[in-house]
User: What shape does this take?
Amino acid sequence: MSRPIRDLIAVLVLAAVAVVLFFLFPTNLALLTRIVAVMLLVLSLDLVTGFAGVATLGHAALFGAGAYAAGIAAAKFGITDPLLMLAIGAVAGSVAGALSSLVILRGHGLSQLVLSIAVVQLAHEAANKLSAWTGGSDGLSGIAPSALLGMFRFDLFGRTAFIMAVVMLLLVFVILRVVVRSPFGMLCRGIKQDPTRVRAMGAPVYSTLVKMYAIAGAVAGLGGALSAIATKVVGLDSLSFNLSAEALVMLVLGGTGKLFGAMLGALVFVWFEDRISAINPFHWLTVVGVLLVAVVLFAPNGLTGAAEAIWKRLRRARS
Amino acid sequence: MQTVLSIAADSLAYGMVLFIISIGLSVTMGLMKVVNLAHGAFAMIGGYIACYATQQLGLPFGVGIVAAVVGTVLIGIPLERFLYRRIYGAPELTQVLMTIGITFIIIGIANFALGPTLKTIPLPSQLQGPVDLGFRSIAAHKLFAVAVGLVVAAALWFIVERTPFGVRLRASVDDAAMAGALGVRTKMVYAVSFALAIGLAALGGVVGAQLLPIEPYYALHYMVTFLVVVSVGGAGSITGALIAALLLGAVQTTGRYIMPEYGEFFFYLAVIEVVAVFPHGLMGRSK
Assistant: This one.
């Protein structure tokens, strides 16, 4: 099968899954919309960690930048058009990504992790201090997005928000498929495998990674803006170390370096989190811990990697 | 003047506690190249054991400390054997995930078994109340923390620089394969260093319990702080960790006294500046 056809099938499958979920769980659309927002964050993390090999524990900084930018635009400047808010979120995330990468890329290994943590914590403290703009620890409220395209109001059940979220996710998915296959995407993979060699070939390492960070920032910012529109509040937790660590867990659970892996990881993680933490949040923590250890020991390529391995074995057994 | 002295005394005590706990992490990271995010969890386990020993069993404080160190090491050894040994030499991402997973499990179990409340470790009468230093009085337990920190630093320096074990340890750090070929049992060296590291974490957890209170989320709250100390100091360097712990302790304490409304803002700003300028830490060696 040629690539465009395979991509078309992938998009159709995603759309079909979304339609099934829409009719299967009509009362859980708010949760499903949140899952899409988190998927965008994890996709963004996959771009820098899975494709470009930058280890980061501070990726929520970009998600939070998008969420706060869209939220502040709506609550303080009266920009309530949802598409415009999404665009503002994407731009803010992209700028935050490019700026933070200038710092994060200075480190390697441990120092890179520590720098990324310091960036998200710094953003968190700044948002807490600037409470006149961000609402501080109470969260930013007063976000009232107007009707989508002037026609579809954001209803109580979250139908409009969910449909908008899914359409946006499909668009982002197609664009990212193109990006990761482009020469630029291949260069990023090369940097992940051996930065010294890429530099020796004459390709710029630092500026390529900054560009990748800017793209990833736009995706994460879009996710943040989406969550601001759908929930109508922005809390400090959207800018937290915890969310960053969780995003990494989701990515590894699904499988790094694969767009489907990022989305599957977010879906499984947030869904189960919602179910289990309703019973007891500490049980959830234990479950995630056991899951992480198990994934590292037994399925280092995540759920999608394990599925691929089983699929291959089945095919071999048949032939 | 009074405030300056208070800040200095608190910074010193807090920095020393940070040092006692972080130096173990620095050893694991410098020697075994393992980003052990569960290090704080071991300090927390030490605190819980000491609390149990002193409050439930009524043992004296000194025995509580020993019990905490021994108990934590006994819990840690099987973890080293079955989980950590598999991630030696693995990419950072794998190590981060595995050790965050271990941290989550320990937090979940601690909360389930012991409840979410703060635990206190009663101090013996000698460590309660202030000690008069002539120009100023200072809480006795803080002086105790400083003394323990100094003893730990001196003892570690002696072990690493002056004993046969230290020679093997340094050889394994420099070139594990070569050291192994020359007859050093590197697996044994790793296991002993790991035990030493988490024993120190447990010690720091008990000694610092007045400043870093013991509760289930301890492991997550201070994880970043310990990691930052090691990264700023340079992995594997005793002097580096000492300088970094005192420096960051001072920044954090001063920030809390003078500008509490900014929270940790200046702490992380300082971290970014230091690490961006010295990516290998203040005293770290470049690879």
Remarks:
- The first strand of chain B starts at residue 130 and ends at 132.
- The radius of gyration of chain B is 19 Å.
